[in-house]
């Protein structure tokens, strides 16, 4: 390649020597330009702009707040975020919209066994309401006597509050009726049970606050799941605490994600200040969210053979085939199996001579937590509380033997409702992990730059104190 011509056409007589000199200068300049471009590229790669609205946009390890192994688990944060983003979240989002996983059997109206229920929330979004029969496919229609007279009035035509409380008997084909020893509700008792369309009753802000909401979490943490000093807390009780804490964090994430910004205009959106105040501000809550996610994921993968062979029949062949296909994609995904083959190692628990007694004690504590869900004064909060606690109870049932015995020779048996709760819980946790991963760094940067007076704009201004803080303030929506 010839060098660029010299100005004014001079140096024609310089001949070869000048050409050689020009060549060396050209290559030197080109080399300098390449070095400069590489430097810019490296600089850009090391310090990229991270738009808050772009999911998974942060590729810089230094920008991650949570790295390394998730405590007490067998996967690291980076892997969890990648697998959740690429594999689990897309599959779960499709699954929970299909008829089999969309309808949940629940006893919504029941007496609180611990104290008089005086905490009904004030917003209409608190209630779970019945949909008209013609909104649903024919196989799901059958006569229904109506709502409890205690049911709150729901807004006419509001899809967020609408509920289908009926299902065809075909849905129960080949599903066993067994009770879960980890939960208080008798899953074999169909009296006063209704069917709820979860897609029409999203987990979101409901306005459920005050003494009733605070009392729920006080009872859970102080009486059944206390946080002892680390040196006094055995590993098994630590697991129970982390599970409840992770579930609590996930609930808070969903409230912040779908928040009533303006009641007068019924405007909903994300409350990122609330997300920071309730979850991101406390690293332990984020860590416990990831822990609970991996714990439930381990239960699903451990029960893979059972779940693959289960019959997902709702009377709609096309939807049912799609359900079976998606379940298999999730259970036997090669990316998941290679990246995180053992999300949680349950074999480390219940060791020692006190193992059986300890298991019974923790099972009793979790059953009490399940019973406390009957005391939740908000119908929609009670719905999601019961579903997610049953999902956790199902995960515990899968991973651990029950009633202090090994039951090694007994095959796993799950109710249809348990499977619905398990997958919907995993989806809830997946959504929470994804939202925290996407928004965490950018929200913390913005919040830290703001003055204290603007941090709580549009959210609760209650003072946050205490080691873990759950009993120190009211969590907007559901304590």
Automatic annotation (TrEMBL):
Keywords from the UniProt entry: Disulfide bond, Electron transport, Endoplasmic reticulum, FAD, Flavoprotein, Glycoprotein, Membrane, Oxidoreductase, Redox-active center, Signal, Transmembrane, Transmembrane helix, Transport
- Active site at 378 (nucleophile), 381
A GO cellular component annotation in the UniProt record:
endoplasmic reticulum membrane
Needed cofactors, names only, are: FAD
Cysteine pairs bridged by disulfides in the record: 121-126, 378-381
User: Which SUPFAM superfamilies does this one have?
Assistant: ERO1-like
Q: Does the keyword Disulfide bond apply?
A: yes
Q: Where in the cell is it found?
A: Endoplasmic reticulum membrane
Q: What is the membrane topology noted in the UniProt record heading this document?
A: Peripheral membrane protein
Q: Name one GO biological process term.
A: protein folding in endoplasmic reticulum
A GO molecular-function term, please?
thiol oxidase activity
- Record protein name field: Endoplasmic reticulum oxidoreductin-1
What species was this sequence derived from?
A: Zea mays
């Amino acid at each position: 390649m010839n060098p660029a011509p010299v100005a004014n056409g001079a140096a024609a007589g310089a001949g070869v020597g000048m050409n050689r000199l020009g060549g060396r200068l050209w290559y030197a300049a080109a080399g300098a330009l390449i070095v400069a471009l590489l430097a810019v590229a490296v600089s850009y790669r090391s310090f990229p702009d991270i738009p808050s609205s772009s999911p998974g946009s942060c590729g810089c390890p230094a920008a991650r707040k949570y790295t390394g192994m998730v405590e007490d688990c067998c996967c690291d944060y980076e892997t969890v975020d990648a697998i959740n983003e690429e594999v689990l979240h897309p599959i779960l989002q499709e699954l929970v919209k299909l008829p089999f996983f969309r309808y949940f059997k629940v006893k919504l109206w029941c007496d609180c066994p611990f104290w008089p229920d005086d905490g009904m929330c004030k917003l209409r979004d608190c209630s779970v309401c019945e949909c008209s029969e013609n909104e649903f496919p024919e196989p799901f229609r059958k006569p229904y006597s109506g709502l409890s007279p205690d049911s709150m009035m729901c807004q006419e035509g509001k899809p967020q509050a609408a509920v289908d409380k009926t299902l065809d008997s075909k849905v129960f084909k080949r599903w066993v009726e067994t009770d879960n020893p980890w939960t208080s509700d008798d899953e074999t008792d169909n009296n006063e049970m209704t069917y709820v369309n979860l897609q029409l009753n999203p987990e979101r802000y409901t306005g459920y606050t005050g003494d009733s909401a605070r009392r729920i979490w006080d009872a859970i943490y102080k009486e059944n799941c206390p946080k002892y000093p680390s040196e006094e807390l055995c590993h098994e009780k630590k697991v129970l605490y982390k599970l409840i804490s992770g579930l609590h964090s996930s609930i808070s994430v969903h409230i912040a994600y779908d928040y009533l910004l303006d009641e007068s205009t019924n405007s909903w959106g994300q409350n990122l200040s609330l997300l920071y105040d309730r979850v991101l501000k406390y690293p332990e809550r984020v860590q416990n969210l990831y822990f609970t996610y991996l714990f439930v994921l381990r239960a699903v993968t451990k029960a893979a053979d059972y779940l693959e062979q289960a019959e997902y029949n709702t009377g709609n062949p096309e939807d049912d085939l799609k359900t079976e296909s998606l379940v298999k994609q999730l259970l036997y995904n090669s990316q998941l199996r290679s990246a995180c083959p053992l999300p949680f190692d349950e074999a480390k628990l219940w060791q020692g001579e006190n193992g059986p007694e300890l298991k019974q004690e923790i099972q009793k504590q979790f059953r009490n937590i399940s019973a406390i869900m009957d005391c939740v004064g908000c119908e929609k909060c009670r719905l999601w509380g019961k579903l997610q606690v049953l999902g956790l109870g199902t995960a515990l049932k899968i991973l651990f033997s029950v009633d202090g015995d090994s039951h090694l020779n007994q095959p796993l048996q799950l109710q249809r409702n348990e499977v619905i709760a398990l997958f919907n819980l995993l989806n809830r946790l997946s959504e929470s992990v994804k939202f925290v991963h996407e928004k965490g760094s950018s929200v913390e940067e913005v919040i830290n730059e703001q003055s204290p007076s603007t941090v709580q704009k549009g959210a609760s201004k209650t003072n946050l104190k205490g080691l873990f803080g759950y009993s120190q303030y009211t969590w907007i929506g559901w304590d």
